[in-house]
Design brief:
heterodimer, A: mainly alpha, 11 helices, 0% strand, disordered N terminus, B: Rossmann fold, five-stranded parallel beta sheet, 17 helices, 21 strands, 27% helix, globular
């Protein structure tokens, strides 16, 4: 008996030592930190006085120093403030695009799964069509056809990110609708609307939220790419794509900071949102929620 | 299909189909697998951010020697599958293991597990979902090392001919997929096979064939551990039986001890298992297995034990040698005490205790407005064009009647259940309730309870809500089914299949239900729970004049509870 008690105590002790840190707490902390960084960049960029990144030819072409952390460009813009401003623009466009794409995906995916038949076929065909054309070509086409500029970028990015999420939502709604617990609910006399609201929505919502968050980094990368190629925002505007594009001319002269810092900031934002999305996925998926 | 009363069938206990089942002295042989003092816990999140450790296996021991088949039986949710997963190192990340697992005397750590897995140790997982959905049968069985010829031979012995070689898992029936799974394990030249529930969905003959294959393995000097709910199969084919309960080893006994109504068994729970078999007393044991976060101080069985004394609730009994086996009990049932304690005890729940097929019939209450009829008239159904599942089937049941629908897997029993409940529509023929087409609006008088409760409840609903979707069952019914109030606050992934199934049944026992279709509802449950659940259903059916269709592959069960049995 004493032996047993001792062995139990020992095993408890052993387990206490190997017990991993609280993953859920870590995930929530991470989510908060990431959210704060995103919001800070957004607010700082949008409320920034234009004087901070105004051109100042007396300060042009400086390498990073104590006053200009990221250096200055050929027009004397402070690259730090200029990049923050650019990031804020990217985030706004990214948010707009992922919201629109997510909404389209939700509507099309649900209709596709609920109606079935030819409606389903048409929507799937449309999704396949969008996915079969190289994404960049699609973006260029749309942006170009509406005359480029801010409107062109927003439309192009918003209208091309829905197909994959639509398929996910369609599959998920379909799986739940044909599931046994929905069949049981129907047998207990519950109507379609009731089932949709109480059974389908709670099961699809997490997928939808995570999918929409994961669209965001794609959207801002595509926005920058379009601008970089000259089909997006005007090249003199403070946008990461535009900054990178104009830095091309000066890289050969050794002005490495013009490309490196804005590029790194963009990558950082993309990685942050990816991590945030994965994090939320793990927290809401019943299979991994306890890990 | 003709209604027919199946007469007798060879009793498993009498005719042991497998040759060479003898218990041999075990110290002569090498121990292949030794599990000693195993503890397993999960780190879980409580409300919000609080973490807690749920200890689900406590001080579990088991050993398997060369030449031995060890059957692991016990309550659903007692940690049987977890043990298998711990041996193979495939537990989820939030699991913590302490204690010792040795393979041929060598401590199994993560590296060794990875090296031995699939070569020296083979695993037959419980769910057929473990088959690669994109791999054809022959490739699947062949694996990485074996030849196609050997794979073919392995499939042959389970009665799977060349036609299945090129089929994908989704094209196989449940029983066929199960046989493919077993084939994947026996083809490796492993020293240890651990099979987690290898036989559900197989016919009795198939299950015996599988056990015979395991026997040949054992005779070739290997060790086999079979985790099963099928007590009949366990004691007719294994050498040694290990009884698990609430994450502990309660008893390690020779399989022979389970014969003759289990009079040689040492632990009260082992006795309860044998008594709960449909062909024996079909005796339920009140109460439920304690949950991992709410374990009592002393013996884990004390709350249900008829032999409990004060010591039992105070002291934790160790596993000790007793009368040729091992038992974890302060007062094991010894020869002298047996008669007095177990003699003529009967169940006084108002139901018959006799073993005749119509044992329950006397308690029947005639429904007030004349029994209505549910009938299927020459219905046919196929999921895939040209492959009919049901052809021209007639079936009928009246309110107040309990009918068994019996037959091997793949005969369309479940599909007939779907048609009768209105879940699927027949492609030809009609289903009529009281002479009219099935009512599809409002609460349907014909309800279906599914085989897999995990799929039949919304994973994002607490169980109280799942229950309330139908009605609020009275306290007596909840007690009869063994539903604990605390479970209603839990999420489905926190309960075992057996516990979830009780909710699914309670939900369907709404008095508005006139015909209840039970599709293999107790296949995945232990025999004690099976007896408890079926007694509750039969009682409710008799009191409310409800009809019951029991779809089952267990003839013993059907004979025990049904007024008539239909073979399909």
């Amino acid at each position: 008996m004493a032996e047993l008690v001792a062995s139990r105590a020992a095993s408890r002790e052993a387990r206490k030592n190997v017990r991993t840190s609280n993953r859920r707490r870590r995930a929530i902390m991470l989510a908060i930190v990431l959210g704060v960084i995103l919001v800070a960049a957004l607010v700082a960029g949008l409320t920034m006085s234009p004087d901070l990144y105004a051109s100042d030819y007396s300060q042009k072409q400086q390498a990073p120093n104590a006053v200009h952390w990221f250096g200055t460009d050929f027009q004397g813009h402070d690259m730090f403030c200029f990049s923050i401003r650019g990031l804020a623009l990217s985030i706004v466009i990214g948010l707009l695009a992922s919201a629109v794409s997510g909404f389209v995906a939700l509507i099309l995916g649900s209709i596709s799964a609920i109606c079935g038949g030819w409606v389903d076929k048409v929507i799937l065909w449309l999704a396949d069509l969008f996915m079969s054309i190289p994404h960049m070509v699609m973006l260029l086409l749309i942006s170009f056809s509406v005359g480029g500029g801010t409107l062109g970028v927003v439309l192009a990015v918003a209208l091309t990110h829905w197909p994959s999420l639509t398929r996910v939502i369609r599959a998920e709604v379909l799986r739940i609708r044909t599931g046994e617990f929905v069949a049981a609910s129907r047998a207990m006399g519950k109507g379609n609307v009731w089932i949709a609201w109480h059974h389908v929505v709670p099961n699809v919502l997490p997928q939808f939220i995570v999918g929409t968050i994961l669209l965001f980094p794609h959207a801002i990368l595509h926005e920058s790419a379009l601008t970089f190629l000259g089909f997006g925002l005007p090249l003199d505007s403070p946008a990461i794509g535009a900054i990178l594009s104009s830095s091309m001319k000066y890289l050969a002269t050794g002005a490495w900071w013009l490309a490196v810092f804005p590029g790194l900031m963009m990558v950082a934002i993309v990685l942050l949102t990816f991590t945030l999305g994965d994090d939320i996925k793990q927290l809401t998926d019943p299979h991994t929620v306890q890990e | 299909m003709a209604d027919s009363m199946l007469d007798q069938r060879e009793s498993i206990e009498g005719a042991n189909g497998i040759e060479g089942v003898q218990t041999r002295p075990e110290n002569a042989r090498e121990a292949i697998l030794e599990v000693e003092g195993l503890f397993l816990s999960f780190t879980q999140y409580g409300t919000g951010l609080r973490q807690r450790d749920l200890e689900v296996i406590h001080d579990l021991s088991l050993s398997a020697h060369a030449g031995e088949i060890v059957a692991v039986v016990g309550a659903s949710g007692s940690g049987k599958s977890l043990l298998a997963h711990a041996i193979f190192g495939i537990l989820p990340d939030n699991a913590r293991v302490a204690g010792s697992i040795r393979f041929r005397g060598q401590e199994l750590d993560t590296q060794l597990q990875a090296r031995l897995r699939g070569s020296s140790m083979a695993f037959v997982p419980q769910s057929v979902d473990y088959l690669d959905p994109l791999m054809r049968t022959l490739e699947q069985v062949r694996g990485v090392r074996a030849t196609a010829d050997r794979a073919r031979m392995a499939l042959d012995r389970f009665g799977l001919d060349e036609r299945v070689d090129t089929l994908y898992p989704f094209e196989l029936s449940g029983g066929m997929a199960r046989r493919v799974l077993v084939s994947t394990a026996v083809i490796e030249d492993a020293d240890l096979i651990v099979a987690d529930e290898p036989t559900p969905g197989m016919t009795l003959e198939m299950a015996r064939e599988a056990m015979k294959t395991f026997r040949e393995f054992a005779d070739a000097g290997k060790a086999v551990v079979v985790i099963t709910h099928d007590l009949d199969l366990a004691y007719s084919t294994a050498d040694k039986i290990v009884v698990f309960y609430a994450g502990q080893t309660f008893e390690i006994a020779d399989a022979a001890d389970f014969r003759d109504g289990g009079v040689r068994l040492r632990h009260p729970y082992s006795r309860a298992l044998v008594d709960a078999l449909p062909q024996n007393g079909f005796k339920p044991t009140p109460g439920t297995q304690p949950y991992a976060d709410n374990l009592p101080q002393g013996c884990l069985y004390a709350n249900r034990c008829p032999l409990k004394t004060g010591e039992c609730t105070a002291e934790h009994p160790p596993l000790r040698d007793f009368a040729g086996g091992r038992v974890r009990c302060l007062h094991p049932v010894s020869e002298e005490r047996r008669d007095g304690v177990w003699g003529d005890e009967s169940v006084d729940d108002g139901l018959a205790t006799g073993s005749q097929a119509n044992g329950f019939a006397q308690a029947r209450v005639e429904p007030s407005r004349g029994p209505r009829l549910l009938e299927a008239r020459s219905v046919s159904f196929s999921y895939k064009e040209g492959v009919p599942v049901l052809e021209d089937i007639d079936f009928s049941i009246r309110e107040g009647e309990i009918v068994g629908l019996y037959g091997p897997s793949g005969r369309g029993k479940s599909t007939l259940g779907y048609l009768l409940s209105g879940r699927e529509k027949p492609q030809s023929g009609t289903v009529l309730w009281d002479g009219e087409p099935l009512p599809m609006r409002g609460y349907r008088p014909i309800q279906l309870v599914y085989q897999h409760p995990e799929r039949a409840v919304n994973p994002r609903w607490q169980l109280g809500r799942t229950l309330a979707e139908s009605w609020e069952p009275p306290k007596e019914l909840q007690d009869a089914l063994g539903i604990e109030d605390a479970w209603k606050k839990r999420w489905p992934n926190e309960l075992s299949g057996g516990e979830l199934q009780r909710f699914c049944i309670a939900r369907a026992l709404n008095p508005q239900t006139r015909i209840l279709i039970c599709d293999e509802i107790t296949t995945m449950l232990d025999v004690v729970t099976q007896a408890q659940v079926w007694r509750a259903i039969v009682k409710q059916a008799r009191e409310h004049g409800m009809g019951v269709i029991a779809i089952t592959h267990s003839l013993a069960l059907a004979e025990r509870i049904c007024d008539r049995i239909v073979e399909i």
